[in-house]
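Appendix B.2, paired examples.
Example (i):
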Amino acid sequence: MLTKYFFIGIIVAVILQRLLEVHLSDRHAAEICRRGGKEHGDNLLSVVKVLQVSWWVAMIAEVWYFHRPFIPALASVALAATITGQVLRYLSMQALTWRWTLPIMTVPNLPVVKSGVYRYLRHPNWLGVILEIAFLPLIHSAYLTAFAFSLGNAWLMSQRIPAEEQAGERKH
């Protein structure tokens, strides 16, 4: 029973992190606009929000109502992968600095960022999200949530990544 509360604590920490990221994104979006930038296309942010909130609820519901077991070996691997995802997302934000936003935004005449983690990975933030969505539920054996939301996230990325690439090429 104690492991379920620990698991919920992790989820609450991720929720608080996401709320801070929304605030940071809003600040960065204002800076981008101040520098003459603009938002591109349908960012699917409403889909992202529904996916995120549903993912949190599904994890808790699956663990609580289906009495998913806590398996220490699986939890250790899942926690390590989740932390790796968090690190990739943080490194992405660090490399992009004020250019990191939730909506797809660009500033005219600024090149695509190729420093920091972007020297090694094209979309480190998305790789971090993949790891989080797939592995956070597995910390407490919520394999149905991990599978279903990984599929939903794959669809979202199939829409979002090409839109980001196109915005990077267009710039205005």
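Example (ii):
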Amino acid sequence: MLKRKADKVDVLFLLEGTFPYVSGGVSAWVNQMIRTFPDTSFGIVFLGGRKQDYAAPRYELPDNVLHFEAHYIHEQGSAVETRGCKGDRQAFASMSDLHDRLCYKQNLEDIGGLIRTVLPMMAKGGKLDEQQFLHSEESWKMITERYERSTDPSFTDYFWTVRIMHKPLWQLAELALNVPKARVYHTVSTGYAGFLGALLHFQTGRPLLVSEHGIYTKERKIDLLQSRWIQDNRSVFEKDIARSGYFQELWVRFFEKLGLVCYQAAEEIVALYEGNRQRQIDDGAPAAKTRCIPNGINVDKLAALRYLRSPEIPRVVGLIGRVVPIKDVKTFIRTLFIASKQMPDIEGWIIGPELEDPGYARECHELVNSLGMQEHIRFLGFCQVEDVLPKLGLLALSSISEALPLVVLEAFAAGVPVISTDVGSCRQLLEGGCEEDRALGHAGVIVPIASPEKMARAVLALLEDSQRWHAAQQTGFARVERFYHERLILQEYGELYRKLLALCPEQLH
């Protein structure tokens, strides 16, 4: 199904941990984008952590996807014979410069020129190939010299952290030299996929488009605080990587610099809403390159679901999303527990896959059992939103981080008011952005993060007040029709693609 090869495409998508293997808002958006422009040829380079973490594809590739390849950047490689070597001192001087710029507070002036110098040497057999990095005397010297600048007493932890942090860069360098030629490179995040986009831009001169749905560095900080991301990487290399603040800071700086390199390489940088655009600028994105294009949905298709609703307001609250810590499903469960004391017939539906973090999913099931909520809370797994939205009285987002969640727009179009934590653009979605938008009213209730008591009060207030519920329903539908219809959004992306494609000749050499 996914075996497609091409030498050149119009647009090459660079995707980290999303389409076509993971369902969710970003993947749905990528699928929508590709299908909206059938006369544009697309390629996809998918980057994942470990192959075992991904099941069968969730999406079929559209016909205009001419190329697909998947790579797993934290996979343990096959054993090869290793031999120590001296290493090229001049080459490692350039590598040291790149390392310092990515990991320490060094400027990124002419980072493109430095990457163009280093990239060919990182190819297999080059002066800075992976074996040179892992086993040469010059590499050992580079790491030990930088360790002496650190404040952490454990050299073993520092040594393995640096190796784990940098190892994927050699795979990205190899990809940059071998992926199909494209007129435009399009990444939907910074991070490793965004850095690959920067490598491709600096190598070829072709324009790079960045469309961030969430802010990658912000999400990685959350992961690091939960210690799950470092733990995943440690298990790959089977080394005891310290979780100290020093190493967390080192990882954060590394991802911030990868993001900054991506921003500098980009021709255009798109955020979903103004708050994220300002965050991009704060993180180093040139303001003149940034713009906002929100998510959009097929309002007409989803509006038909309103006619499938029962006359009564269902006492069913749904959480639609992956069962992962960033969605804070436990707060949703506790919300239903509190609300059930006043509304005994209330139900909570958790609608989303549980495979991404099985340990967390197990904890959520155990919490339901410990609270005695087995009769009130159901885990439905992945479902089509069209099948569940007409049955919900409310949609709830308990997330600790969001950008502009498509599921909120889908709920509005289907006639479902929303309770949401005050994250990302959710306040703008529920209460309005511009003056014209705010005049429409509130389409639900905003509550603080990790506050099940306040979320429960908001749930009860809407479900027990039909007049308020219907007013929120009408506001949501009016807002999504006026400001978030896909025809408006896709028109903007169509113009952006035409502008960037026009920068390159039709024939790729």
